[in-house]
Write a structure and sequence with these properties.
Blueprint lengths: L1 H25 L7 H33 L11 H16 L4 H4 L1 H27 L3 H24 L3 H11 L8 H17 L1 H5 L1 H4 L3 H6 L4 H23 L5 H13 L4 H26 L6 H23 L1
Helix pairs in contact: 1-14, 2-8, 2-12, 2-13, 2-14, 3-5, 3-6, 3-7, 5-12, 8-12, 13-14
Main location: membrane
GO molecular function, one term: transmembrane transporter activity
GO biological process, one term: siderophore-iron import into cell
Length: 320
């Protein structure tokens, strides 16, 4: 019965997502220039799909690993890491260098550097703290502050023209998505999803806790290490594609849990991706139709996410 209820709610989310997609694609469109409109709007929807799936899945896996539903990978300073990596490339090599100006090389530079550094830093952090959430959050906050201070120092002594060029790449946006990079990102996401299929199937067991998972035959340390690498790579792909969006994962992962009220990650992952698509399409409509692209979508997501984060903190406190 519960499985049937979950499938009905998933179906409702699918229908809602398709309605929002159709509205975004065809609202206020001149059919004489149909191909032109689609060439602009379809890549944005593709970027929204990839971003919602990457951040939603990564956040759900991360929350299960550390057994806490109000924490996201971005709260550990991953966004700050992206900012300092991207700023460092422009600072030392210049905005006209091939590493910053070439769309393919820039994407892979961000992806490889962020994936490698985040994996090394956070794997060490989790191992040293023995997955203690309090210490992990504290260390993550300190590292985020350090990365931001480093990035701010470079920006202050950077050439103003270089800074203007850099600034456009540091703010999350779906307005200038490159279709070629979108295809590469999609292939990477499909490959990683298939690669992690076996580990994702044991997430329901891992959610029971380390001792129970080991007793049920899970190679806990190996699976956790592999999943953490996957979390880092999914976040890196989404961030390198559209820029950092801090609270998106928190919003869509927890809304998916509240809508389905289940522990099964096969349902939760799909629901988080669908909720993420709805949230991002609504945000993009607000940015384009109300504010004429003057305010980036990350501003609205971070404001809503900050309020939602406080609500979750107070709600969890009341349950204790």
């Amino acid at each position: 019965m519960k499985a049937l209820a979950h499938k009905k709610r998933i179906l409702i989310l699918v229908l809602a997502t398709m309605i929002f997609w159709a509205f975004y694609l065809f609202y206020d469109i001149n059919f004489k220039f149909f191909e032109y409109y689609m060439s602009i709007r379809l890549p944005k929807l593709g970027a929204i799909l990839i971003t919602a799936f990457c951040i939603g899945a990564a956040t759900l896996v991360f929350q299960t690993i550390i057994n806490n539903t109000i924490v996201t990978p971005c709260l550990l300073g991953m966004n700050s890491l992206y900012l300092v990596i991207h700023t460092t490339i422009v600072f030392f090599l210049g905005s006209t260098s091939v590493f910053a100006s070439n769309k393919y090389i820039s994407f892979f530079c961000d992806l490889v550097l962020m994936g490698t550094m985040a994996t090394i830093i956070y794997s060490y952090l989790f191992r040293v703290t023995k997955f203690n959430v309090l210490y992990v959050l504290l260390a993550g906050t300190v590292m985020a502050t350090f990365f931001l201070s480093l990035q701010s120092t470079m920006v202050r002594i950077m050439d103003p023209n270089e800074y203007e060029t850099l600034l456009a790449t540091l703010v999350a946006s779906f307005s200038h998505v490159n279709a070629d990079i979108l295809g590469i990102a999609f292939i990477l996401v499909v490959f990683l999803t298939l690669f992690y299929k076996k580990e994702l199937e044991v997430l329901d067991v891992i959610a029971l806790g380390k001792e129970r998972a080991i007793n049920l035959g899970v190679d806990y340390d190996r699976v956790i290490s592999k999943l953490l690498l996957g979390v880092t790579l999914f976040i890196a792909i989404a961030t390198a594609l559209v820029g950092p969006i801090s609270f998106l994962g928190l919003i869509i992962a927890n809304l998916a849990r509240q809508i389905l009220k289940t522990y099964k990650h096969s349902y939760l992952t799909l629901a988080a991706a669908l909720v993420g698509m709805i949230v991002l399409v609504c945000g993009q409509l607000i940015v384009e139709r109300i504010f004429d692209l003057a305010i980036p979508i990350s501003v609205f997501v971070n404001i809503a996410g900050g309020i939602y984060f406080l609500y979750l903190l107070l709600a969890n406190k009341g349950n204790q």
